[in-house]
């Protein structure tokens, strides 16, 4: 039987199809391969970046990494409510909650909380239809869009917080968290300081919208012409401090808020701002359950 002659033709490894215009047409198998999801894509979103806990603490200002390892070993650090004692634990700072000595660390770099000494005759608003000075001249110093936490009336000066942390702002202004605020009150007073005034403020006075009382009240100064009294209370009703003194026949000539929770006005001059330090911000957050 005659042997078949072997053809010299070698088929190409890749077949290129062309349309009637001479353009290359990709094969159906190639198109299906492009359409099929890759193994990486089908596995879901990328894993979040995780960092060693001691590195996160060092960046937050708790010293060197070795010092932060000591803090961890002392049981002073918790992550998502669980105390961490093991070294080298990795966390996701953008998603997990870290406390040191019970104080929350703000690890989100996009959040900012600022203390402002609001000057007198500035409206606690971002815009005033009457054209008076408002808070925009102070918030525009920062790249983030900040909002005021609560209010101080037009005549009152002192500590006002500005933040872009909505949850923190909500809790600070919600009455259920009872955040204390301290005010220094000045009023004209000739003669002797009225006996029983401080006790009356502490026990409570009746206002048109219900009773109000100071948690603490103390005399700071009295020279026979005017007096200065410091009061601390946790209520935030409109003009409540002025109305409490007015109920006793006293009109305040100056009112300055000097403290909100653990945050102090300190030496901040009227119109100046400062970003809250990590420690005081953590204490403030812990005070409202964050």
From TrEMBL:
Protein EC: 5.4.99.-
A Pfam family the protein falls into: PseudoU_synth_2
Biased composition (Low complexity): 27-46
GO MF entry, a single one: rRNA pseudouridine synthase activity
CDD domains: PseudoU_synth_RsuA_like (cd02870), S4 (cd00165)
Annotated spans, Disordered: 1-51
Any one biological process term the GO annotation gives: enzyme-directed rRNA pseudouridine synthesis
RNA-binding S4 domain sequence ranges: 51-119
Catalysed reactions listed for this entry: a uridine in RNA = a pseudouridine in RNA
Enzyme class: isomerase
Keywords: Isomerase, RNA-binding
KW Lipid biosynthesis (keyword) present: no
Domain of life assignment: Bacteria
InterPro entries: PsdUridine_s_RsuA/RluB/E/F_cat (IPR042092), PsdUridine_synth_cat_dom_sf (IPR020103), PsdUridine_synth_RsuA/RluA (IPR006145), PsdUridine_synth_RsuA/RluB/E/F (IPR000748), PsdUridine_synth_RsuA/RluB_CS (IPR018496), RsuA_PseudoU_synthase (IPR050343), S4_RNA-bd (IPR002942), S4_RNA-bd_sf (IPR036986)
Signal peptide: none
Protein family (similarity comment): Belongs to the pseudouridine synthase RsuA family.
PANTHER family: PSEUDOURIDINE SYNTHASE FAMILY PROTEIN-RELATED, RNA-BINDING S4 DOMAIN-CONTAINING PROTEIN
Protein name: Pseudouridine synthase
Gene source species: Brachybacterium endophyticum
Lineage of origin: Bacteria, Bacillati, Actinomycetota, Actinomycetes, Micrococcales
